[in-house]
Design brief:
Number of helices: 12
Radius of gyration: 19 Å
Structural class: alpha+beta
Order of helices and strands: EHHEHHEEHHHEHHEEHHH
Helix content: 25-40%
Shape: globular
Number of domains: 1
Number of strands: 7
Largest sheet: 7 strands, antiparallel
Length: about 300
């Protein structure tokens, strides 16, 4: 759990994909301007401090890299440095490579400590696009170790409606193939968690067990006080030299209760409740919200009414 003078709280949510603009379990990729690529906010120091803690305590769980990805990693580091020099020069840092084989010798590691985003490098191979390198300090219920070197179709196996042979999986692969270096794509995902932890991993076995037992995330707890909306802002861009694809994931955490203070409270809360109501059993199990969905919907509808 990360603290920065208290829980990670924003006066009002920065992103609200639950307003209906981003449907759950939809690809939803849209082009955006490169000026909007990296997001930096007041919680930047706390995010970087948490990344350093995780690297120090569990490096093998938050960083992976295949041999032969060094050049592509450097390409990522150079792109991030260029963006920061233009938009946030106080955050741009140079680094001196360390002895080969150490974490400190990985350009992607250094790049990750300059931004709040997680950085995932996807590479095309005989089995399609696979996860070839990554810094994932803030996973949203998945395991970097389990997905390392896996192709997209296997990475997406647990996701309802995705996985091998599915239309969404085939569309994503074609999008990766067709993506041009002069394009930047963005999509959003969301979930609800108890507490404000940024590091939230989940193995495939743990997900299966959770789906079988369907425990509440809020047993004996005040849902209104402890529920946080976890927003994933994801971007995709193809690297011009290596032709690898960089997948960035920026986590935003907002207390659910801030919706009640929003000037568009009724619209946001009603839409959020509608999104939750529309999830089927498999989707609820995947998000771990089966036991709590009805209580969450009731809470949101109460907010919409001003209760």
């Amino acid at each position: 759990m990360i603290r920065d003078n208290g829980p990670i709280v924003t006066t009002l949510p920065t992103h609200t994909p639950y307003d209906g603009t981003s449907k759950p379990f939809a690809i939803g990729l849209k082009p955006i301007d490169f000026d909007r690529w990296i997001e930096i906010d007041a919680h930047y120091p706390a995010y970087i401090e948490e990344k350093r803690r995780l690297y120090a305590e569990i490096p093998d769980k938050v960083f992976v890299a295949e041999a032969g990805t060094q050049a592509a990693q450097q390409e990522v580091a150079d792109l991030i440095a260029g963006h920061l020099h233009q938009h946030a020069p106080e955050r741009a840092m140079a680094f001196t490579p360390a002895p080969a084989g150490s974490l400190d010798d990985q350009p992607l590691y250094h790049a990750s400590l300059q931004v709040q985003e997680d950085l995932i490098l996807m590479r095309r191979g005989d089995e399609g696009w696979r996860l070839a390198a990554g810094s994932l300090c803030f996973p949203s219920s998945w395991s970097l170790q389990e997905k390392f070197r896996q192709p997209l179709e296997k990475i997406h196996v647990p996701v309802p409606g995705f996985g091998p042979g599915s239309r969404p999986d085939q569309l994503i692969a074609r999008m990766f193939d067709a993506l041009s270096p002069d394009q930047l794509m963005e999509r959003y995902n969301w979930s609800i968690q108890a507490g404000d932890a940024l590091y939230l991993p989940l193995s495939n076995d743990a997900r299966d067990e959770r789906a079988a037992t369907r425990p509440s995330k809020f047993p004996g707890r005040d849902m209104a006080a402890s529920a946080f909306i976890r927003i994933e802002r994801q971007t995709l861009r193809k690297l011009p030299l290596s032709r690898d694809v960089l997948f960035t994931i920026r986590i935003h955490l907002d207390p659910l209760k801030v919706i009640a203070e929003h000037p568009e409270r009724a619209r946001l809360a009603s839409s959020f409740a509608e999104q939750l109501t529309a999830l089927d059993a498999a989707q609820l199990d995947y998000k771990g919200m089966t036991a709590d969905r009805d209580r969450l919907v009731d809470l949101l509808l109460s907010m919409a009414r001003g209760g």
